[in-house]
Amino acid sequence: MNIAVVSYSYTGNNDMFAACVAKGLSATHIKIATQKPMTMGSIIMDMIFARTPKMQPCPNNLKQYDLILFFAPIWMGHIASPLREYLHRLKSSPQAYGFFSISGGADGGNPKLFAELLKRTGTKPAIVLDQHIRDFIPQNSKPTRNDTSAFKISEAEASKLSTIAIKEINKLTT
Ligand SMILES: Cc1cc2nc3c(=O)[nH]c(=O)nc-3n(C[C@H](O)[C@H](O)[C@H](O)COP(=O)(O)O)c2cc1C
Hints:
alpha/beta, five-stranded parallel sheet, two-stranded antiparallel sheet, 6 helices, binds flavin mononucleotide, Flavoprotein-like_sf, Flavodoxin
């Protein structure tokens, strides 16, 4: 099965997770970036005004893949805006896909995730995994949004998480 791992990351967590999964699956890893650098201000403006930033590479060469695994953070309860162009492409050109995220989880889960994927792509994801940073922080502490947003996962944590993700992905592909 020809699998593409497509990742966007602002502070590095989701790219690191995606890289471990891509390596474990021997999949192509496409790291995407905004044409203009994101700032905290542009993140907030994108989320409030539903803007879609222009990405590089543009999502033209995904047809060759049997499964696309997207990785991106959650911002303000929604999938990070830099993934929108890619998700939207699936609406006109449906393909099997999954979505993975390392998000903060300081306010609990991200309950709108599945509905947003369905709305943006027009089809249900084959797999969704939203891993919270809150779960990496000692359980008796009450991490704030600032704590979780500043947290960088270690390579060991990314590798451990990728083992769990790969196990689930293999269930889809075998
Ligand atoms: C502006 C902003 C808003 C955020 N909103 C959420 C949120 O609604 N839910 C959540 O679980 N995490 C939220 N986070 C935390 C990020 O999802 C988390 O820090 C993630 O690991 C960042 O991924 P990255 O390192 O790949 O950029 C937010 C972070 C930022 C900067």
